[in-house]
Amino acid sequence: MFLALIFLIFFNFFGLPGVDGATCITKSTCAWTDFTLPLCISGTCKCFNSSFVPIRSGCGLQMTHRPVVSAQQGKTNQVISGQSFELSCYFDKYNDYYTFEWYLGETKLSTRSNTYTAVADENTVGSFTCRVRTSARLLTSPLSYFFEVVKLGGASGQATSNERPTIYVPTNSAVGGSTVILECNNIPMGYTDTIIYTVNGVNTTYSSVVITSANAGKYVTCTLTSPSAGVTYSRPTSAVGNLPRLTTSISSVSVVVGIGTSQRLVCALTPSAIYLQSSPITYTWKANRIHVHTLDNMMIAKHT
């Protein structure tokens, strides 16, 4: 049984591409392992039970969680014809080495990473799914739900997009003189044309805004160029957002766990330190009510 598992691992990751489920002619060609029974049914070796799924070398234990396919941050599921687009297969339920599998419709794609990149044409868009496999425990996930990529423009693409962009302002408050970077989100993948930002009634192509008493709290929108690449946007302008209001002090302080580790602590400010540029910041940490100057499991930031 041990040798059978070794072969199962080897062929699962290094074997020749093939359909899922080890093919067979008679039951003698199906190795009985922890996951695969010596039963040949309709040309495929039978799995131990419904908790296992066919893989090309036999069967693997199926995970309960599905991965998720998504577009780049801030983008819709639409892509401009002839432009590059990137999708991600997200899965974080197990700490293990993953091999990713991508499908466009029923066709298995060659990439094995967590991202898939292509140039949009009639052959590269459609319904995408992905799944993951782990090496150490021979686990396999269910397929993700379908993520439909729609082509805009070109010979066979949609001529009109009904999606509306959204304006993102990264903070609600800031010290005067701070710079905020606006983001125009919910736009098609591959959009490379001009974005117009309207700040307090004035149009600009710059996304950075210096906050002053004259513009603090004022209205802001973003607008896509229409038509663009043969595409018309039925709702090219976002709903109204607001620039941050002026502040002269820190409104709240909290300790949060740093991303990717349970040992690093971060002192989080509202507004964030980058919007307090004109005010020097000194951080004082306490552990059990005792002042701490240095502590290995804390990230003690000092702004001077």
Automatic annotation (TrEMBL):
Its signal peptide is 1-21
**Assigned keywords, A-Z:** Signal
Ig-like domain sequence ranges: 67-140
> Which top-level group of life is the source organism from?
Eukaryota
Annotated InterPro entries: Ig-like_dom, Ig-like_dom_sf, Ig-like_fold
Question: SUPFAM superfamilies in the record, alphabetically?
Answer: Immunoglobulin
Q: What is this protein called?
A: Uncharacterized protein LOC129928724 isoform X2
The species this protein belongs to is Biomphalaria glabrata
Specify the taxonomic lineage: Eukaryota, Metazoa, Spiralia, Lophotrochozoa, Mollusca
Q: Which gene encodes it?
A: LOC129928724
